[in-house]
Amino acid sequence: MLWLGSDTLEWAKADLLIILAITALVIYSLVLFFKMRQKVWLLDQLPGPRGLPILGNLLFLNVDTSELFQRLMKVAGMGEVARMWMLHMPYCFLSSARTMEVILSSQKHIDKSWDYELLHPWLGLSLLTSTGSHWQTRRKLLTPAFHFKILEQFVDVFNKQSNKLVNKLQKNADGIPFDIFDDIAVCVLDALCETAMGRSINAQDDWNSEYVQAVKKFTWFLQYQEFRPWLRNDFIFKLLGYAKEYDACLKILHNLSTSTIREKKKYLKNNTNKTAVHQEEDALGKKKRLAFLDLLLEYAEDNPEFTEEEIRKEVDTFMFAGHDTTASAVNWTLYNLGLHPDIQQDPVPS
User: Fold this and answer.
1) pLDDT > 90: what percent of the chain?
2) Torsion-angle region of 286 (φ positive above 0: left; ψ -120 to 50: alpha; else: beta)
3) What angle do CA 342, 346, 350 make, to 5 degrees?
């Protein structure tokens, strides 16, 4: 009969636990692997450019802006829903109103992708970047600020900035093609600053102002990091020398909104009769407009948890999201009008 000592039994138990742990890890890894392969197989049924192992379509996208646009248009032309791979992350491109309606009308699909984390340094956790209960609360809070009655107050701002833009564009009405995007962008930026913060930055008159350049540079950083995932690592980002200029842009962007908030709070504090302040008339006898910031400050009076920093996040979000989307929409509208000159013609009287 074979007798085993206590030390030998302890070693046997330890070996058995190690074997069981390794076996469980292998099984778990295989399950994850096959689930991942199934997901990859399903995604690869969608049309899209051929990718490389590990890198996916990273090299396909790592080009300058004009070439990137052409390549994305090529992908969009492959089908209503097309796919690409950024390393191990799949991206689906929707290029029809029918497919986009499914996502945009959904109250379920509101989780943001990891790309939105690139906006956190400027916007923090705001309506654009949040999800779940935080998003629901902010959505409920901010929706009244976009009521038609409030927006109507700013029609004269839109008209003023639009007329200024038209006067600028008339200088280029000589038949020679030119890039209109920057002209549209600064017009929108001027209108948004007045509607969001109640102050004018005169971007159309001073394209080189530090705020305008900071917005432009931060937008460039967003796209640059988007298709270069290694730059999302803070250490690598600093090591390659981008952090200094990036931080300088953020400081300018935050300083303008923060200083405006504090000036407005100081003004309201010194004028304790809030009703009189809001009904104050300007030189033309019109009631002064309530900017987006004014509405947020009113809300903060009854909700102490809505701090100055939270107000800053939403004001900055309004600036970024409104500026980028509106400028792009106006440019695409003009582009389509240019493609269809017949639509520009006055209708023939019947």
Assistant:
1) 20
2) beta
3) 110
CA angle 171, 172, 174 (to 5 degrees): 110
Strands 81-86 and 89-94: antiparallel
- Give the separation between CA 96 and CA 100, rounded to whole angstroms: 6
Q: In whole angstroms, how far apart are CA 320 and each of 63, 126, 128, 214, 334?
A: 24, 12, 10, 12, 21
pTM (predicted TM-score): 0.77
Instruction: Check if the beta carbon of residue 152 is closer than 8 Å to that of residue 173.
Output: no
Q: What is the pLDDT of residues 166-214, one digit of tens each?
A: 999 888 888 888 888 889 999 999 998 888 888 888 889 887 889 989 9
Whole-angstrom Cα distance, residue 104 to residue 106?
A: 6
Residue 44's alpha-carbon distances to 30, 47, 79, 233, 341, in angstroms, are 20, 7, 13, 29, 40
Residues contacting 80, CB < 8 A, separation 6+: 94, 95, 96, 98, 99
Give the model's pLDDT for residue 330: 92
Residue whose C-alpha is closest to residue 314's, from 135, 113, 194: 135
For residues 240 and 234, give the distance between their C-alpha atoms in angstroms, rounded to a whole number. Answer: 10
What is the tens place of the pLDDT at every residue in 297-328?
A: 888 888 888 889 999 999 999 888 888 889 99
